[in-house]
Amino acid sequence: AQSVTQPDIHITVSEGASLELRCNYSYGATPYLFWYVQSPGQGLQLLLKYFSGDTLVQGIKGFEAEFKRSQSSFNLRKPSVHWSDAAEYFCAVVGPNNDMRFGAGTRLTVKP
Amino acid sequence: KAGVTQTPRYLIKTRGQQVTLSCSPISGHRSVSWYQQTPGQGLQFLFEYFSETQRNKGNFPGRFSGRQFSNSRSEMNVSTLELGDSALYLCASSLLAGVNYGYTFGSGTRLTVV
User: Fold this and answer.
1) Under the phi-then-psi rule, with left for phi > 0, alpha for psi from -120 to 50, and beta for the rest, what region is B8?
2) Mutation test of the interface with chain B: which of A100, A102, A106, choosing the one with the most B Cβ atoms within 10 A?
């Protein structure tokens, strides 16, 4: 069944450092993949999505993600992290019921 | 334009009671989906409504139900509340049915069952 796995529960990076959040998917065909961000007490905001085509996807807030079929991955990256990026990040894939299936999330802490 | 509005933001109920949560989608959006978020189970799909019809349903007991009105506003009802129903309930809207183009989420309703 379609699913995503986020191996890292918590990541800490220094402000200004680069960031990579990992996401592995399980799906037979080309998946529809998403990254969302959730700030404390808030809903989820869509950062970017991948359906097909160019495997490097640009999103909002300076984020990008790369779809790698050979590695079943869709990792999220940002070249320079800002303190305001501290939040929880969710990778998601469209499931067979046309529902969104989320990973467990990765909590990002940004050190000054 | 206004985003997805969920009311109330916070709710405290007693076991055995029932609760109704409300969601107003972005103007023009016709699809509304509901998700439950808990620390233990993460984000789980409850159901999706499009044009007043339930299109999909997740793996939740019948105590969880919903409906959608002609103006696309949606309500979710949980009857006979259990402690395990304590969660953040998120509503998401999209222009068309299905999730392929991504959702816009509301800020959620935090339900605490005591």
Assistant:
1) beta
2) A100
Contacts of B94 (CB under 8 A, 6+ apart): B29, B31, B33, B101, B102, B103, B104
A104/B105 Cβ within 8 A: no
B30 pLDDT above the threshold of 80: yes
Residue A59: per-residue pLDDT: 96
The pLDDT value given to residue B71: 94
> pLDDT-based confidence at A4, cuts 50/70/90?
very high
% of chain B at pLDDT higher than 70: 97
Give the span between the Cα atoms of A108 and B84, in whole angstroms.
Answer: 27
Question: How far off is chain B from A91, nearest CA to CA, in Å?
Answer: 11
CA A32 to CA A51: how far, in whole Å? 5
Length in residues, chain A: 112
Cβ contacts of B58 on chain A, cutoff 8 Å: 97, 99
